[in-house]
Amino acid sequence: MKRRTFLTASAALATLPALPAFAQAQANPLTLAWTGPYGGVPPFDKVKVADFAPALTEAMAQERAEVDAICANKAPPSFDNTLAALERSGAMGERVGVIYGIWSGTLSTPEVRDVDKAMAPKLAAHNDAILQNPALFARIAAVYEARAGLTPEQQRLAWLYWTRFVRAGAKLSAPDKARVAQINQQLAGLFTQFSQNLLADETDYVLYLRTESELSGLPEDVRAAAAAAAEARGHKGEFAILNTRSSIDPFLTYSSRRDLREKVWRTFYSRGDNGDAHDNNAIIKQILKLRAERAKILGYPTHAHWRVEPAMAKTPEAAMDLMMRVWPFAIARVRQEVSQMQAIADTEKRGVKIAPWDYRYYAEKVRADLYALDMNAVKPYLQLDKLREGMHWAAGQLYGFSFTPVTDVPVAHPDITVWEVKAADGAHVGLWYFDPYARAGKRSGAWMNAYRSQSTFDGAVTTIVSNNANFVKGAPGEPVLVSWDDAKTMFHEFGHALHGLNSKVAYPSLSGTAVARDYVEFPSQLNEHWLSTPEVLNRFALHYQTGKPIPAELVEKINKAHTFRTGFDVTEYLSSALIDMKLHLAGDADIDPDAFERDELKKLGMPEELPMRHRTPQFQHVFASDGYSAGYYSYLWSEVLDHDAFEAFEEAGGPYDKAMAKRLHDTIMSVGNTVDPADQYRAFRGRDPDVKAYLRDKGFPTG
Q1: Domain Peptidase M3A/M3B catalytic: where (predicted)?
Q2: At what angle do helices 593-604 and 566-585 cross, to 10 degrees?
C-alpha cells in the first residue's frame, strides 16, 4: 500500500506480475500494466467510464490479497518481507487511480460523478481495512522497533509506515476502529458531494455580454478569450465571463461597468452558498462534526492537532503564532491601499465607496498613478507558450534538464501536450504532461499531479508528472496572454513538477512531493522567483505581435511595484488560512459556517473591502478532502522558507549560481521525504529559516 489512496491517484507504479486469481482483470484495460515507451505510459486512449467501477473493485481485491499474503508470511517480519513488500503492493490500484483521478478532476460528466458517489465510500473503507489491519501493523511495528540495523532511508520508511498506521487508529480498540472507518466513509461521500456542488455552480453560472457598453474597459485579449468561451458554449458572437477565477479576475480588474463587476463578484463568491440544491453549508457542518469526533477517538484535542502533528509546525499553536505575527501588518497595509483607491474614486465624483468588487479595478488605477505601471501593458509580453519555454529553460539552467515534445503517447484530451525530460547527460528522467485550458467538467484552479513516482529499489522507475491550469483558450491561431499573477502561478506549479522530476530515492512512498504539507509548497513557491529574473524575461517575455522583449523600463516599474497590493494579496490568503484553523480548533462546537466565518472575521478586524480568497462554502482545499484541512497555513509557512532560501542565492552570486543550485538539488529537491524537512532546510541554509526575509519581501516591518 503506497503513501496515497486511489482517490489522489499519484503514487508510484511498481512492477508486479498480475496474480493468477485476478486473471479476469485482463479484460479491463485500466487494470493492465502500462506499456509503451518511457517505461510505460497511461492508456488514456482506452478509457471508458463504464470500466472505472469494475477496475477499482478489482484493484482493491488484488491489493487485499497482496496484504493478506504479507500478513500470512511465516517468516519473522523483516524490512524486505514487510515494508518492501508493501511498497510493491497496490500497483494495479495506482494505475487505475491515476486515470480515474484525471477523469474525476478534469473530464467530469454526470456519468463520472455517479461513479465518484458510488465508489468514494468503498475506497475509504478499503484503505481503512488496510490501515487498521492488526496483523499487518504487528509486522510493521516489529520492523520499526528493530530499525537500528537499517539504512537511513529504510529507517525513514519504517517511521513513515508506523506513524501513518498509528495516526490512522492501528492501536485503537475494535469498536473505535470500526467507528473511525465509518467516519472516513461518511467523509469520503461528503467530500465528493462538496466538490460536485462547487463544480455545478462553476459550470452553470455564465455571464454573457452582448453590447459594447457591457464590454467597456476590457482589453482586447480578455474580449477574445471571452468570445472564444462563448462560442464554445454555443453563443457565437457573444462574450462569456465564466464563474472561475481565471475568467473572473481579469473582468474585475478591467471592467468599467461597476454594476457588472458587482454581479460577477457576487456570483463568484456565493458559489456553494446559494441556499439551493448545491449549497455546501450543511455538508460543511457534517464534515466538521465528523472530523472532531474522529480526532477525539484518535486521542487528539481537535482535528487541527491531529493534522498538524506530522507537519513542520508540529502544533496548530505554532501555525497560529506565525499567522498572527503577519496579520496586523497585512490589514494595516490594506487600510493604506483602500485609502489610496478611495482618493482616486473620489476624484471621479461618482459616489463610489470602495467595495470588494472595486478592489482590483481601483488598485490598477493606483498602480498606474504611483508607479506609472499599467499591468495591461505587461500582458502582451506574457504568452502562455513562451512562458512554458521559459520555465523549461530555467529548469535547464538550475538542474540540467531538457524538455522535448513527444507525440507517441496517448493523452486524455487533445489540449494536453507531453514532453520528455532528460538529464544533462541525456538520460531519461521522466515525462511532463501539460493541460493548460479550462473546459466543462474540469475543476478550477491550477495544480500538479504525479502519475508515477520515481523509485529505484526494484529497478529504476522514472516519474511522470503533470501540470494543470484553467486558462481561457483563445481563438484558433491566437496566442493566449496571461497576467503577471497567472505567470507566477505557472512557475509555482511547475516547481512542484520539478520537485518530482529531481527525485532520486529508493522507495516510492518517500519520493518527490511526498513530504509534510507545510513543506511541499516550499519548492514550488521558491520556483516563482525565477520568473522575474532578467535571463527569463529577456528571452521569453516577448511581445506577441512584434517579438520584441519586454522593455527594461517596464521591468523596472514591475520591480518597483513589487510590494504593491501586498495588503490585498496577503490578507485575502491569510484570512482563509485563519478561518480554516479556527474552524478546526473549535472541536465539536455546533458551527453555522456562514455565521462562524462572518463573526470570526469581524473579531480579526477583517477589512470589509475584500473577501477571503476562499470563502468557506467553496473552500476546496479544506472540504473536498482532508488534504489541506487545518493546513492552509502551509503556504505562509512555506513562503517563509522560500524567501529565506532565495536570499541564499542572492548572497551567493545570483539566481543561477551553479554551486547554490547544486546544493538545492542535493539537500532538498532530490531527497523527497528521506530526510526530515527541518534537517533538509538546515543542510541547505546552514541554519533554521528566518521570517524576516518574508517580511522584507512584502514591505512589512521586520522589527
Answers
A1: 251-699
A2: 130
In what order do the strands lie in the sheet containing 417-422? 402-406, 417-422, 428-437, 463-471, 447-452
Among 180, 336, 361, 347, smallest CA distance to 261 is for 361
Mean pLDDT of the 269-291 span: 97
Question: Cβ(492)–Cβ(478) under 8 Å?
Answer: no
The 3 state secondary structure assigned to 558-588 is: HHHCCCCCHHHHHHHHHHHHHHHHHHHHCCC
Residue 434 grid coordinates: 501539460
Q: What is the mean pLDDT of residues 201-220?
A: 96
b/e burial code for range 191-201 (CB count within 10 A of at least 16 → b): bbbbbbbbbbb
Give percent above pLDDT 70 in the chain: 96
493 is catalytic: yes
At 30 the pLDDT is: 97
Lookup: cell for 130:
488496510
Query: Which residues, other chains included, contact 216 with Cβ-Cβ below 8 Å and sequence gap of 6+?
Result: 255, 256, 257
pLDDT tens digits along 256-277: 999 999 999 999 999 999 999 9
Spans of all domains in the chain: 20-131+133-171, 205-255, 381-514
Phi and psi at residue 308, to the nearest 5°: -85, -20
Residue range 20-131+133-171, CATH number: 1.10.1370.40
CA distance 691 to 585: 24
How far from chain centre, in Å, is Cα 572? 17
Quick one: cell of 421? 525530460
Could you tell me the CA-to-CA distances from 81 to 21, 143, 307, 454 in Å, in that order? Answer: 21, 10, 30, 21
CB 436 within 8 A of CB 471: yes
Query: What is the spatial distance between Cα 308 and Cα 519, in angstroms, rounded to a whole number?
Result: 12
According to DSSP, residue 300 is labeled -
- Asked if 145 contacts 252 with a C-beta cutoff of 8 angstroms, the reply is no
497-527 burial, b at 16+ Cβ within 10 Å, e below that, comes to bbbbbbbbbbbbbbbbbbbbbbbbbbbbbbb
Separation CA 196–CA 265 (nearest Å):
21
C-alpha–C-alpha distance, residues 17 and 33, integer Å:
9
Q: Which residues contact 146 (CB under 8 A, 6 or more apart)?
A: none
Q: Which CATH superfamily is domain 381-514 in?
A: Collagenase (Catalytic Domain) (3.40.390.10)
**Which is it for the CA torsion 386, 392, 397, 402, positive or negative?**
negative
* CA 216 – CA 238 distance, rounded (Å): 14
| Catalytic, out of 493, 528, 597, 609 | 493
- Computed over every residue of the chain, the mean pLDDT equals 94
Which neighbouring-strand residues pair with 105? none
End-to-end CA, the chain = 48
Contact partners, residue 331, CB within 8 Å, separation at least 6: 567, 571, 604, 605, 606, 607
Q: Please check whether residue 240 is in contact with residue 205, taking contact to mean a CB–CB distance below 8 angstroms.
A: no
Beta strands at 428-437 and 463-471: parallel, antiparallel or unpaired: parallel
Q: Give me the pLDDT at residue 26, please.
A: 55
35: left (phi over 0), alpha (psi -120 to 50) or beta: beta
How far apart CA 656 and CA 533 sit, in angstroms, is: 9
Assigned C-alpha cell, 327: 496579520
Residues in contact with 679: Cβ distance below 8 Å, sequence separation at least 6, in sequence order: none
State yes or no: pLDDT of 643 exceeds 60.
yes
CA distance 565 to 371: 12
Residues in CB range of 582: below 8 A, 6 or more apart: 596, 600
What are the E-state strand segments in 160-315? Answer: 206-209, 239-242
Count, residues in the chain: 703
Q: What letter does residue 44 receive in the DSSP assignment?
A: G
* CA dihedral of residues 185, 112, 470, 544 (deg, nearest 10): 160
CA-closest candidate to residue 324, choices 635, 633, 644: 633
